[in-house]
Amino acid sequence: MDQDVMKKLSEMMLAATRSHPLFAGMEPSQLSDLADGWAKAAQAMAAPNAEAWGEWVRTWSSYQSEMTNLWLSGLQGKQAHVEPSRDRRFGDEAWNEGIFPLMRQSYELASKAMVDLADKAGLPAHEQRKLSFYARVTADNLSPSNFVMTNPEVLKLARETGGKSLVDGFRNMLADLEKGYITTTDETAFRVGENLATTPGAVVYRNELIELIQYTPVTPKVRAVPILIVPPCVNKFYIFDINEKKSMIRYLLEKGNSVFIISWRNAGPETRDYDWNDYITRGVMSAMDATADIAKAEKLDLLSWCNGGTLLLAALAVMPTAQKSLVGSATFLSSLLDFSDPGEVKVFIDQPQIAAYKQRLGAAKVAPGRDIARAMAMLHVNESIWGFVVNNYLKGQNPPPSDILYWNADTSNLPAKWYSFFVEEMYHANRLKEPGALTLLGQPVDCGKIDVPCCFVAATGDHIVPWTTSYSSTKLLPNVTEFVLTSGGHVSGTVINHPAGSRRHFLAGGDRSGPAEAWRASAERTEGSWWPHWLGWLDRTSGADERSAPGNPKDPERAAAPGAYVLEEVPQDG
């Protein structure tokens, strides 16, 4: 096979990609990235003594041979005892009947060849990562399970319902087109404040950016050091209070803590010009001052998650000494300080993609939360996109209720200034970890001066914040006294990990003088949730003294929890 043939092959792969009618959220700029990747791969193959050339030839030859044998076997009627697929998309017995085993196996061979060829292109690291990623997305998009006429489960259901399933699916698709996103749960089953975010409390402070919620204590006495939670800005805070059985807030109250949480306002006309300085001063610092004043506390334990953790790190790095003296401890769940390896998200982070998105934002001054949700969905396109497309549109079924998926779809807009600073200065340039590389509140940012006791919690299955990258933060801060690694994912390992009936486990207490894997080998494993272990760390770090539980301030101007900002409807275009 010569270079001209390989060039034609790359062009065919790109054409197949572009021909797909539902392209799983890929933007024109991402299609261009894929085209550029295949073009560069073809050029690499044409280079003298190209190292990847031999791998490509072997991969292509193997694919041709396996496909030829498959079709010859099919023509000779040797499909009777075909092996079932290990792919969940083809788990139904219908895929092993009639012509569908041949179709399914042909696709599996072709998609494997496409991905293998992409993986062996031999491009520079970031270009290789992008080509491999988009090749996988392309292969998943082209699955026969995603089309009516090539999915035997869909055809069978259509026959059984007299076509009603297809009609219902078309209606579902029209409804989603009107909404602008794929429905992933029965949204009529949930209402925030009624069966989500129901822990009693009150808004005790409000400004144009945040509401501060104080939860009603459930024990006669509480720890003298209240807990203030700093949630992410891109999702609503109530993941910490999703329901009675999963609520971290309710658990903390039951264990005798006084709990406050920030509810970020969905970026709209009032806040779309805000930047990181505003989120630090009017967000984190204002909430700290209000919490200390209302709780009459000398110290606060700060708990943050995801980009809320990065925001808290930046705030602590530039916080006035008097205010930092309020901090008894700071805990960071699935949070990044070092962005050298931000996980699978890295495929979206480079200058051309950043520039293309900034141009798309235009004059709106707001980054729609829906855009970020789509990008995250692309990281697991079969589970997060195509599974719902097949179920909702091709089979005409409605997804079952899921409180986590409801919360996940309840996105928040971000000010364009905030978003651009986060992506360009931290994700792309990785400047947060470099002393003095960033300036906030008119000061050089030096996280090495964050001398408060810190705890980092990471999750083994986190695809957004790899645990090894979280671990690297323990080398960059002077007073990290605890690192915990829990099983589970970005949400399920950290925030949703109630000790009641937990099937998780966690590692802690290892030797942090060496690299991540060495720590992991030396750490002690404990079955169950990490939450009780963390509460023990809080007691040892900032004190276990108790006092009488305070009541919520009686102020008719304030709303009951979950407050008003979490319910505000702001258009996704700002």
UniProtKB/TrEMBL annotation:
What name does UniProt use for this protein?
Alpha/beta fold hydrolase
Q: Where is the composition biased (Basic and acidic residues)?
A: 542-558
Q: Name the Pfam families on file.
A: PhaC_N
Question: Which UniProt key words apply to this protein?
Answer: Acyltransferase, Hydrolase, Transferase
* Top-level taxon of the source organism: Bacteria
> What PANTHER family is this protein classified in?
POLY(3-HYDROXYALKANOATE) POLYMERASE SUBUNIT PHAC, POLY-3-HYDROXYBUTYRATE SYNTHASE
Q: Which GO terms describe its molecular function?
A: hydrolase activity
What is the organism field in this record?
Answer: Albidovulum salinarum
